[in-house]
Amino acid sequence: MKREFFGKTDVGLRRPNNEDAWIVMPDLDVCAVADGMGGAASGELASRMFVETVQELFGHLRPGTEQEAVEAAREAFRLGNERILSFAASKPSHRGMGCTAELLAFRDDRYVAGHVGDSRIYLFRGGVLKQITHDHSLVQSQLDRGMITEQEARRHSMRHVVLRALGIQEPLALDLSRGTCRVGDVFLLCSDGLTDMVEDGAIRDILSCTDGLDASAARLIESAKAAGGADNITVVLCRVLPP
């Protein structure tokens, strides 16, 4: 199978700088998104360190099999976490820096997804949008236990509190999943600057259009800004093409 990729980021309407980072490596069938935290330059640096680690590892290892892609993904998260922790320990002004992170790698008709934090990966297939990651957040934990409703979760004052992220501790607890691709599938990796502003139904409607990935990415970002643009907004899209 072949795939096409497109990525786009926007600072939004309320933040002075962009702490998100993203990368697409079409020749290696890999993409990633990271959302920095820790304030100003610290969050920006943490997210960039993760995507640079992804670029370095996949470019060097060039994994050919699904299992090799799994191992490369695990190592990207492990090493990215280690580098962020080490840097923060050596620079007191950067203590508390970290990032959420999403990674998607394809091999033949299979995908490997790595996930930490409250950024997300979605799969749009046959008109249905499915979130294939599970938020590592305080609000999601309360939602899972039936303590709050979906609507209450969207308005919760602590919805930005994450329970897992790179740069917090070692060892890193990583969610890693695998699945099968189909021709026509569209994968979306995004920071919470999109999902806090735009509900899943609206995301589905945008991806339902037959526009190119660049147009869909632009519409997603503009929708988030129209809803308030409270955070940086990053989207990476991948469409599975016929062989």
Mean pLDDT: 94
How many discrete structural domains?
1
Q: Give the tally of β-strands.
A: 10
The helix fraction, in percent, is 25-40%
Q: Strands across the major sheet, in which order?
A: 1-10-9-6-7
- Low-confidence stretches at least 5 residues in length (pLDDT < 50)? none
**CATH architecture classification:** 4-Layer Sandwich
Which descriptor suits the 3D outline? globular
Reading the helices and strands in chain order gives EEEHHEEEEHHEEHHHE
How many alpha or pi helices? 7
Using only C-alpha atoms, the radius of gyration works out to: 17 Å
> Remind me, CATH topology?
Phosphatase 2c, domain 1
What does this structure look like?
- With 243 residues, the chain is of the alpha+beta class.
- It has one domain (2-241): PPM-type phosphatase domain (Phosphatase 2c, domain 1), CATH 3.60.40.10.
- Helices cover 36% and strands 29% of the residues.
- The strands form two sheets. Strands 1-10-9-6-7 form a five-stranded antiparallel β-sheet.
- Strand 6 and strand 7 form a beta hairpin.
- Helix 1 runs antiparallel to helix 2 (66-90).
- The mean pLDDT is 94.
Summarize the structure.
This protein is α+β, with helices and mostly antiparallel strands. 36% of the residues lie in helices and 29% in strands.
Secondary-structure blueprint:
Elements: E1 2-10, E2 20-25, E3 30-37, H1 40-61, H2 66-90, E4 98-107, E5 110-116, E6 120-125, E7 128-131, H3 138-144, H4 150-155, E8 175-180, E9 186-190, H5 192-195, H6 200-208, H7 213-226, E10 233-241
